[in-house]
Amino acid sequence: MKFTPLSDEQIAEFGLIPESEVDFEILNAQEKVSSKGNDMIELNVQVFAPDGSARTIRDWIMPSFMKKFKHCLDACGLTSKYESGEIAAADFIGKTGKLKITIGAPNDNGVRYNQVFDYVKRAGDFKEKVKQAVSDLSDEIPFGFLIPFAASFIGLSNYLVS
Question: How much is the pTM?
Fold first, then answer.
């Protein structure tokens, strides 16, 4: 039988997403309290590797780590919630964006794992950009009334309402 030998480091990193910027979707979110008594939100985040595969990892965000907390809200399009000073775990479910993924240090058993290093702020307000694009298309296309139907068909209808 033939096989390709791997080093211990290659074996430890097998199946991990390389450190990079990747797309994500938040599948679930729960409000919890950290071991130090701080309010936090635990996120189940589906990350999409450059090769197209997807994995689910957990992440925790909390106001006591304001940089990552704010970046997560910005990446999810929840900047107005940040500015209001109040957020619920349910606000995160279904949100998408980009994040920086890294490979964590080995745990006590020598196993390495992916973790969220930080979230990437959206470039501008996505909702406003979609509204503007639809408006521009409606002005140039004789059948512009079909744009809302097409947007709902591809899952963008929630960006068309004010």
Answer: 0.69
